[in-house]
Amino acid sequence: KLKALKETHVIDVEILLFTKKIRKLNVLHVFITLMNNFLSKKLLSLNLNRKNEAISLANYKPFVIFEKLIFISGQLPFEKNKLKFTGKIDTELSDVEAQQSVSLSTNNLLWNLNDAIDELKVSRIKCLNLKGYFNCTKSFKDHSVLFDISSNLLIKVLGEVDGSHSRSVIGVNSLPKESPVEIDGIFGILD
Predict the structure, then answer these.
(1) Residues in contact with 118: Cβ distance below 8 Å, sequence separation at least 6, in sequence order
(2) Is 80 left (phi over 0), alpha (psi -120 to 50) or beta?
(3) pLDDT tens across 32-52, in order?
(4) Has residue 31 got a pLDDT over 50?
(5) What is the per-residue pLDDT for 8?
(6) For residues 167 and 147, what is the distance between their CA atoms, to the nearest angstrom?
(7) Among 25, 53, 56, 106, whose CB has the most other CB atoms within 10 angstroms?
């Protein structure tokens, strides 16, 4: 009995060590996969870390790929699965909070784009169109200036040629979850 108990213990220890090796390999695989993607490399090099996992608030996907196009659903300023800012840009948020909302929403858009190209293993994409929606009063007039934060970030990440895009920015009376900002984009696959 004692010998059988020792053998069982040895097997348990071997299984535990094997499980730890698998976990290390999985972590390594995730790291290698992440680092093989040109976009994640660029985002991390610019200290644009992922703030939120890809989530959908209703019956839609974070992105859809059709032929050589990637459509990224509207992104809100989520951080750690919580809306970081709420309210109207021009009356309930400071200028800094409004700017951070646009930056965070754009960051989430870029990480969703990263997820999309991870599935495709592409090495070059172009931003074709960007749309911004601002929860604001009818007296707000700085839509274009505020939305430049998003445009500038895309150009910084993708470069002048691939980051330049057409765009629209619209003031609205409300957005989902009382978000101050929602940003969506269309990207083209170039390789």
Answers:
(1) 33, 37, 40
(2) left
(3) 444 457 898 899 999 998 887
(4) no
(5) 52
(6) 9
(7) 106
